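Thread: "does anyone have the structure for this chain?"

Original post by V.I.:
We have the sequence but no experimental structure in hand. Need at least a predicted one for the grant figures.
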Amino acid sequence: MVPTDRGIMLYNYIKDALVCLEEIEKNIHKKSRTARPTISLGMCYTIFQHVLEEQVSQVPFNLLTRFSENCHLLDDLNNGAIDFSITTQTTTQPSLVFTPFSKERLILICGSKTDTTLLDQLIAADNKKAIKSWLKKQKWFATAANMQYLKCFWLTNFKESPDFCADYIFPYFGSILRCLKSNTGFTVIPDILCRQHILQGGIKLVWEGNPHHENVLYFGKKKNAVYPDAIQFIENLLTQYWSQVDDMPKDQCPELVVTK
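Reply from O.Q.:
Generated one for you, tokens below.
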């Protein structure tokens, strides 16, 4: 084939760019044989903030994080957008494997300046109707417009969905905890995310519910993961953290018990 004059002109315009692309491709192939693995991790932001954030420096590989709801994390895991996830839900996709490793209990908490004298009496008497009526009149915080955790807690204890909306909606529990600290208001939150705040005194544990509402926590990953050793490292790191929480002396926070 013989190029036309216009073909020669086009080649002269793009030849430098083609050479540059070839060099980039060579460098990428070289680095892929020697560079550290890159793992994409999906979880809710508050779990990352409370559990993994301070331990990231221990990770001997590149780590990309994605924060989303459980349903979106499962989709991302299935289509390969992430390599590993922490969720409270599973799917039946044959290419995925889910390993239970702990549980989270949904609990009712409030700012330390909230007057709960009457509520404490109602809870002690197990007067569910009066408890529900009293709580509906309070100031509420939630993490999403659908109030997922509050709905689960309310349905478990009162056998119905809440017929009110939260007064304040925030993207993350961390923001809610900072707003509630030494203030007034209520929220429903997984116990693992607020234990330290309760121990420090800025947040009060009001009620664990009767019965308790607990979610199983799962590690999710592909059956044929590209970097199984790196994923195992993350699993070990997270399992170690949860084990330390489970082993916390009960006299430090006797109301909270995280079960495996």
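V.I.: this helps a lot. DSSP finds nine helices and nine strands in the chain.
O.Q.: and The CA atoms of residues 39 and 150 lie 33 Å apart.
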